[in-house]
Amino acid sequence: MTLYFDTKVEFLDSDAVSTIGNWHLSEPLFAVASYSQERGGSITIFTDSGEPQRDVTYPVHPTSQVSALAWHPEKVLLATGWENGDIHVWFAGHREFASVHGPHKAAIVLLDFSEQGGRMVTADSMGLLTGWRCDGQYQFLTMFSHDLRDLLLHITFRRTIESELREEMVNLAKAAVAGDDDALDTLTNWRPRTAARSMTHAGVKDNHCFYVGTQNGLMYYINQSGTCTEVLKNNSVPVMQMLWHPKKDAVICLMEDMTIALYLVESTGILTELDRVKLSGNLSGKGGVISWAGNSLAIITGDLSVRVWDIEKSDNYLLKMDLPSTAVSVLATSSSLDVNSASTNFLSNDSNEKSSTLNSRKLQKFMQPTNELFTCLAYSTGSQTLCAGTNQGNVYTWKRRVGQLEMPEDYWQLTNISTVRGAVKQCIWGFNELAKPCMLINCISNVYVLKEQPLLSLHTRDLWAVQRSAKTIYLEHAIGRHSFIQAEFAITALALNQLNLIISNGRAISTYSIEKIQKVHDYRIDEYADESASAENNDKDRNLNVKLIQTFNAECLGLHLQNQSIFCLNSNEVMIYSIGGVVLNKILANDNEGKIIGMDITGTYLSVFTMNGFIKTYDVSRHDPKPMFPSKSGYDLFDDFGEVILVKCNTAGTHLAVVIANRSFAPKPVLYCWNFERNQLMEHKLVNGAEESNIKSCMPVSIYWDTDEPRLLAIEVKSMQQTQEGRQTPKSGKTPTTSSNSIESEVLVLFFSDKNKLNVLERRLLGLGEQVINLCVPNVITLDTSIVKERPLRDFVDLKKCDENTRKMVLNFSLHIAEGNMDLAYRCIRSIQSQTIWTNLAKMCVQTGRLDVAKVCMGHLDKARSVRALRQAMVNDDLEEEAKLAVLATELGMYDKAIELYKKCGRHDLLNKLLQARGKIDEAITIAETEDRVHLKNTYFHKAQQLKERGDVKGALEYFEKSQNPVQNITQMLLDNPLAMKRYMQNSTDPKMLKWWGQYIESSGDMDAALAVYQKAEDWFSQVKILCYLGKISKADAIARQSGDRAACYHLARHYENVGKFQEAIMFYTRAQTFSNAIRICKENDFQDELWTVASSSRSRDKAIAAAYFEECGSFKRAVELYHRAGMLHKALEMAFESEQPEVLEIIASELTFNSDSELINRCADFFTNIEQHQKAVYLLAKTKHLKRSLQICMEKGIPITEELCEMLTPSKNELDEVTRIEILTQLGDLLQQQGDYHTATKKFTQAGDKVRAMKSLLKSGSTEKIIFFANMSRQREVYIMAANYLQALNWQEDQHILKHIVTFYSKGQAYDSLANFYAICAQIEIDEYHDYEKALKAMHEAANCLKKLGHSQHALNNLERTIGDVKKILDIQNALKNGDHQAVISGCRTMLIKPETPPIRQADILAMLVRALAYSKQWAEAGRSLKELAMKENAWSTIGLVDKALVQKITKECNLDFEIIWNTGRRRVNVTDDETERDKEEEIEEELH
Question: For residue 1396, what are the CA distances in angstroms to 150, 361, 1403, 1412, 1413?
């Protein structure tokens, strides 16, 4: 909860009236212009406290006043424009205002600075516009002047769009507390003192361009160089206000006719209209009518409403004018207790939750006249707060919420309504010395500074104080006595002990004495409770006497009280005053440590921290403070240290609790505890691992050590929870995921152990608006709105009224339990004799889950039965942990907790049992019907029993009918009332109930009535039984035939048998499926046909009996069939063989399986073999897994192997031993290979593991693709070689794929001799077919490499190397021929021709090269001879193109030879025929050649 404290600004001239004001952007200074009848116009500079700046001579003009003023955005520099055209500026540190000489002769109406202050612009009422530059010597130089000859209305400088880094630095403190400004307000005393303020424009270049609007509706743009351009014409309505868009290059313009236009700004300053909205209303002033509120635009339109326009979403809405209900409780108090204050505050709790609100009309009727309207508007970016002032002196403030809300207007919460004297003319946001947001409220006759501050509160064990309004403190004692203290000033600091109350407004301190009251216990005494009940008659006795002692001036930033000493923190040091205001001592820090910026007192120990991060602790129990240790730097204590936020010492003076910020000045979510006596540092992360994924940020807010226990402390933590929510869209059905943020406050109670570790004793969530103000075991003290609440620790829920010794023992017990040390925990409480304490400790064990401790507690309570039940539950492994705790809770009478635990673990059966035991049968039925349907009928039975005991027969009957055994229960209940039973039975339709009723009537001898009941119940057996008894056999026969009831048929069959009607008896015995009785009658009376009919549909045992009877009678065919149907195959086969029935044998054989008798199978196979049905014998043997014999018959008789038979003959791996299996598969493969099924044979050889035989079989199939695939899969040397040999026999010259596989398979098979031979063949083919000696050489090299891998082929390798040498010589000759070295070719060819021709070299190729070389060298005679030799050597030389035809023609011409004859000698291989003519031509050619 926050207040806005008002401070009236006092001018140097008491009758001065304020005109305009402005606040510096980054310094706690503001300036206000004033005018008085005696002195004239003046300007005054004030600090944030409302006091005039000292040592400054303010300018005064008797007839002129300040008409415009502006602060430099970065420097402490104030520029003022006067009505006479003068310009005066003031620089920080200067006493006098300096005059700036300029061209203005008329009143200065506009004055403004650029974004970084590099350019100042002034404008007068005559339309003269002047630009200025301030140099380093604080001299203003004129840069340009433009006479626009029109009244200028506004100047708007072009702004630089904020980057993400800049926004992060500006909002760093806000982000640290997850957007909760109230949490930040409690800690802002450390932020501005250590973090630099000059980050707002870091890395941003100043922009000197600006817009200026005129009265005639023109808009001019002045660029960096000062050039003026008209950018907006044809606009008869003037622009009254222009705002720069915070996120993009765009401006918002407000016209005089309340039209708002959005323009896009180009780099040249040209404006392009994007949107335009016309509002209804009146323009209430020249400025402050529109304002940015985040990314939205806030607008006032001359009434009591604020409209927000969301430009991005094109949505607009009105801000709510309703205060939350939390303001109601203090509304009257604030108004009545602070009647003399200039500002009245209506408080609200800043929260994210929707709360009930006051009716807006009632609030307006209570606070506001009907003609009230808003006059000005301002927005604070840092605190995300919008304020609006009215003509009746009311200031409304709205704060923006954090989270995901449904309606856009819900994001703004009206948090405060402050009232000042006079109409609000101007409201401006600024900052005080502690960087807290402040408002400058300029009224017609007064000027106020409103400072936002949270409500103050302090708590001791017996006394506490809460601020109710700006000047009011509510003081209350533990016994119920209280008092209201009315101060003379707005209270900003508070200190309290049992005897004194100290308050301060930052400039003065007032001390009060409090009436001394007799020491009370930790719990409220009953007599005080009685006294409070009659408070109306004893108001005077209930008042707490408080007297003012002294008020003295003192600067006060922080205030604490210890005994009779007041510790006051000012801007440099800690002053120690007496109660009377006498300075007793002071605490200073050296230059190395820096100024003291924070302090705290716990008990008799004062903790301080300095600007440079040093921490110090003093013992202030005596007159002179005594240091507990040398000052310690935070850089030496912590990693990633930036500055200290909070430091508190425990009551024993041994440990310090510290909260720090990191190097980026963001608070670390870690609590440090430093044992400075042993120099040991403990730490505890405030966010555990399970929550890190959902928590966006976390920050400690306050720390409190327990007032008595030095090990215990409480810390309040605020965190932003970020959760994912899925909402299903109605159209698509999809569930998009949206994130929502919510601020959550919780308190952690921790303690440090002897093992130097911080342990969590308890953590609990705080309510909305609730905050921790102290820790006093057994309670955590919180402030909820304005009410102090005692929230007991979990272990002390029922132990509020206990003495100090018991409280200490229970606390030690809790601490040891939290550490897991059960032995020490038991020692702490074993001496306690109170039954109440042991009961409460046992109940505490339900919360902590410590069943072992609970057993001890129950033992001390002398509850043996409960201990037994608990022990049985602990050893029962079928019970969940929650169910065991529920047993404990049940024994302690905590039935609601037991129900909760049973529901949590899902043991609804035990929950049902518990509810039944407690008599809550209706709740038990609800549980049984929804969750525990297994015990539903049992629950109905207990409900019926309950109603029966109450005498509610009708209700009992209803629930007995739903129970497990309604007949027994209902009949027992109604047996004593025959009439009621008869009426119930007459209306009943339950067959079981009617059957019982019929038996009851039958026992009384009334057969006709019993028969009627049986008919209603459709009990056929009972009907047949009574009809037989009455002799109505025909009717009984009809009922038995029609119903088919087995019992009825059996009873009637017995009756027929007794009377000698055997055929009817056999029929009804058969219908009753009592075949043995029917067979017995048939055998006794030799009814063979009837026996065959009955036995065919009877059971196996009855079939065997009938078959034996037929065998005795010689009816073997029926006997064999019945034995077969009975499953007695041996007997059936024996009889079939003996009686020679082959058709029956075939049927029996078809039903034999692998599990059948082997002898039986072989006999059937022999039978099929003997009758020449070998295929049936093979299938039978294969089906029954007699594979060897089946294969033998196939081989001997040539039975074809089908695919089905092949699968049957293939044994699985688990059927036979491996040797037998391989043998069978091999035989099967051989058989398939003989029959030509090579693929299947390959598969069987492969299953047998013989891949070589598998490959041989596959080679016979000629399937190249399968051969290649099988070779790759087999990975066996012999298989590779076989595959390569097969592929080599194919046309591999035209298929590179096959060639590649040949080389690969030979290589994998390590058959290097075969591979070398293959390469040699390749080389021979390259020469013979293509005359390509180069490729042949490569093949020979590969062959040589293969031969090198063989150790026994040296001779072949030598021969190959000689051949390689010859091939290289031929290649050299070819290269020489290409290069034109004909002599080298001639000599090389003749050398090669001397040698004998050895494959693969061909002398024909050498001769061809020789012929070409001789011809090219024009040795025609030699060429002709060589040509003839070539013709003799190669019969097809011209066909294969060894020598070009043109060259041959040339040679024959030069040698006078017949070309046709020479050329045809090379074509004989092609043109040779058997004709005699051809032989003659050949002889002529030979002669020509010779």
Answer: 120, 129, 9, 22, 21
Of residues 1135 and 684, more confidence is placed in 684
Number of CB atoms found within 10 A of residue 1185's CB: 18
Residue 609 CA to residue 587 CA, distance in Å, equals: 12
pLDDT at residue 1208, rounded to an integer: 72
Give the C-alpha separation, 777 to 326, whole Å. 29
The tokens of 349 are what?
Answer: 């709790």
User: What distance lies between CA 271 and its chain's CA centroid?
Assistant: 45
Q: Is it the case that residue 1322 has pLDDT exceeding 60? A: yes
Contact between residue 559 and residue 494 where contact means Cβ atoms under 8 Å apart: yes
Mean pLDDT across 602-624: 92
Q: What is the pLDDT of residue 211?
A: 94
**Average pLDDT score over residue span 1148-1158:** 62
CB 176 within 8 A of CB 435: no
Its sign, for the CA torsion 64, 65, 68, 73, is positive
User: Which residue do the tokens 């180069």 mark?
Assistant: 1334
List all residues 6 or more positions away from 662 whose beta carbon is below 8 Å from its beta carbon: 640, 641, 642, 668
Exposed e or buried b per residue across 371-408, where buried means at least 16 C-beta atoms within 10 angstroms of its C-beta: ebbbbbbbbbbbbbbbbbbbbbbbbbbbbbbbbeeeee
Residues 1118/1120/1121/1127 CA torsion (nearest 10 deg)? 140
Q: Where are the alpha helices (DSSP H) in 1309-1353?
A: 1312-1330, 1333-1348
Contact in structure between 269 and 223 (CB atoms under 8 Å): yes
Average pLDDT score over residue span 485-489: 89
CA–CA gap between residue 96 and residue 327 (Å, rounded): 48
∠1217-1221-1222 over CA atoms, to 5°? 120
Full 3-state SS string of 330-375: HHHHHHHHCCCCCCEEECCCCCCCCCCECCHHHHHHHHCCCCCCEE
pLDDT band for 704, please (50, 70, 90 cuts).
very high
Give the span between the Cα atoms of 144 and 152, in whole angstroms: 17
Measure the CA–CA gap between 1364 and 1436, rounded to whole angstroms. 26
pLDDT tens, residue by residue, 786-809: 788 888 887 777 666 677 777 788
Sign of the torsion angle spanned by Cα atoms 321, 327, 329, 334:
negative
Strand order across the beta sheet in which 546-553 lies = 493-496, 500-504, 508-514, 546-553
3-class state of residue 209 by DSSP = coil
Query: pTM surpassing 0.90?
Result: no
Retrieve residue 683's tokens. 């730490």
pLDDT value at residue 585: 92
Contacts of 769 (CB under 8 A, 6+ apart): 1, 326, 349, 350, 351, 784, 785
Contact in structure between 24 and 71 (CB atoms under 8 Å) = yes
Q: What is the pLDDT of residues 980-1012, one digit of tens each?
A: 778 888 778 788 888 888 878 888 788 888 888
Residue 1420: φ, ψ to 5°: -65, -35
**Start-to-end C-alpha separation, the chain:** 132
Query: pLDDT grade, residue 79 (50/70/90)?
Result: very high
d(CA 1091, CA 1093): 5
Residue indicated by tokens 């027929």: 1056
